[in-house]
């Protein structure tokens, strides 16, 4: 079992202010794989002092200096790439092939994209008699989740480093192994002491201390909408900038002119990817009524063919849910959907056959779902798909927009004009037409209760910069 109890503060691994041990579990087999310390406000204070001191110099480093440091970080990341992939697979249950090809690649992708954006970013320009400067906002606090752990670390840390900010990271206590590996990469790269600090902890302890800290200038949080609301309230006392990437219940609209077998099968696979634990997962499948029954049969077949297996096994299967508590939450939502009258066509409650240990759940599909049902309105964060029929373009748009969330949406149609019309009218931050990829250079973020601000690429720089006008 790995001992990960120390924090990284002011360029050194340091013992926490007090012992408050937390055991990290492998969700595939429920074995203990590591131990961390849940930090306290005292640890946050220490990290903030280091970050504040480092900011006085790091804020005024040149673009060339920061480019050189990010190049070293990218090299360090590639040196430890396999270590990162295995850490993610063990801590949150991503199957190892998926962890290597997708999960670990996000860290590489965000560092590289921030590096390229930095090389061409205009930090200063003239407007009339004024010089408009984009300056680093200061000390940043980052609170990141367990579902795509290094993705959310890298897409915050890389642009903050690029823009001249200093920071304190609180990774998820459920999945801290990847953050430990990432911190070793930052140390390998040789960033000045205090620029990057990492303190483990839970939300009520370290998360709350970061949110309310008077000497933290900006806070970036990824997680649930409920937690984002609490963080915003705590941060309001010090009027710090808050960027939030929160929940989703993304609509996937399928018109009757597509290759139905291919599109519905792809839709099920996209929902089940990462065991459904993605905020932008296409979890509401809206299908035109003329082909709805056929689509239901295809979806049920695809879900039943979805393989489930241990994260350490090679293959294209899905892994377990991250924890027992999350497994029980997903089970409760499946039961509630059945009670509310949704038609179960695949999966259901309980674990798949042959699984006793591990937090595995059945790939599940519900048909005849009304968009007012709980299962259609609340984020499940598991391998659960709901299918809703619609008559025409207008009804599809109305159902898609009938949600508290607005993170992502998907539109499938051979009529490009129609696809473009629908995409324009959907209230979501990201729309993918006919499964077009969403690249690292595109902004990531949503409307409504899916949050505010944008991450990824040059768009991720904006939250870390203040704008100054110097008139002459």
UniProtKB/TrEMBL annotation:
InterPro entries: Ald_DH/histidinol_DH, Ald_DH_C, Ald_DH_CS_GLU, Ald_DH_N, Aldehyde_DH_dom
Pfam families given in the database record: Aldedh
Keyword line: Oxidoreductase
GO MF term list: oxidoreductase activity, acting on the aldehyde or oxo group of donors, NAD or NADP as acceptor
Positions of the Aldehyde dehydrogenase domain: 13-469
Active site annotation, chain numbering: 245
Family membership: Belongs to the aldehyde dehydrogenase family.
PANTHER family linked to this entry: ALDEHYDE DEHYDROGENASE, ALDEHYDE DEHYDROGENASE-RELATED
Name by which UniProt lists this protein: Aldehyde dehydrogenase (NAD+)
Source species: Colwellia chukchiensis
């Amino acid at each position: 079992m790995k001992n990960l109890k120390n924090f990284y503060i002011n360029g050194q691994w340091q013992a926490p202010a007090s012992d408050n041990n937390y055991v990290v579990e492998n969700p595939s087999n429920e074995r203990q794989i590591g131990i961390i310390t849940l930090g306290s406000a005292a640890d946050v204070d220490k990290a903030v002092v280091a970050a504040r001191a480092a900011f006085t110099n790091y804020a005024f480093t040149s673009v060339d200096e920061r480019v050189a440091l990010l190049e070293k970080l990218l090299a360090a990341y590639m040196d430890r790439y396999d270590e990162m992939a295995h850490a993610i697979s063990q801590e949150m249950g991503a199957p190892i092939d998926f962890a290597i090809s997708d999960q670990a690649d996000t860290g590489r992708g965000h560092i590289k994209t921030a590096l390229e954006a930095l090389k061409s970013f205009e930090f200063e320009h003239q407007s009339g008699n004024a010089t408009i400067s984009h300056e680093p906002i200061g000390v940043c606090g980052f609170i990141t989740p367990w579902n795509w752990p290094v993705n959310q670390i890298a897409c915050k840390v890389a642009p903050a480093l690029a823009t001249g900010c200093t920071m304190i990271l609180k990774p998820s206590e459920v999945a801290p192994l990847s953050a430990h590996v990432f911190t070793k990469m930052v140390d390998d790269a040789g960033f000045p002491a205090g620029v990057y600090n990492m303190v483990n902890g839970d939300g009520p302890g370290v998360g709350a201390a970061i949110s309310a800290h008077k000497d933290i200038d900006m806070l970036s949080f990824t997680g649930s909408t409920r937690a984002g609301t609490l963080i915003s309230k705590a941060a309001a006392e010090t009027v710090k900038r808050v960027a939030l990437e929160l929940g989703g219940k993304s609509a996937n609209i399928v018109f009757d002119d597509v290759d139905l077998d291919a599109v519905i099968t792809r839709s099920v696979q996209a929902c089940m990817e990462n065991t459904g634990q993605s905020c932008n997962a296409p979890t509401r499948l809206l299908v035109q009524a003329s082909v709805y029954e056929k689509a239901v049969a295809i979806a049920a077949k695809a879900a039943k063919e979805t393989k489930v297996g241990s994260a350490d096994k090679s293959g294209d299967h899905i892994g377990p849910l991250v924890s027992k508590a999350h497994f029980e939450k997903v089970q409760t939502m499946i039961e509630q959907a059945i009670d509310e009258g949704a038609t179960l066509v695949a999966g259901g409650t309980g674990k798949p056959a042959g699984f006793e240990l591990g937090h595995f759940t059945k790939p599940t599909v519900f048909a005849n779902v009304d968009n007012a049902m709980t299962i259609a309105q609340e984020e499940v964060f598991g391998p659960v798909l709901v299918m809703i029929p619609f008559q025409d373009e207008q009804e599809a748009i109305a159902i898609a927009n009938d949600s508290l969330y607005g993170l992502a949406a998907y539109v499938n149609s051979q009529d490009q004009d129609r696809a473009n019309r629908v995409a324009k009218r959907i209230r979501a931050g990201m729309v993918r037409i006919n499964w077009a990829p969403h690249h690292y250079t595109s902004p990531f973020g949503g409307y409504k209760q899916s949050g505010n601000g944008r991450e990824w690429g040059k768009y991720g720089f904006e939250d870390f910069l203040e704008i100054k006008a110097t008139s002459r």
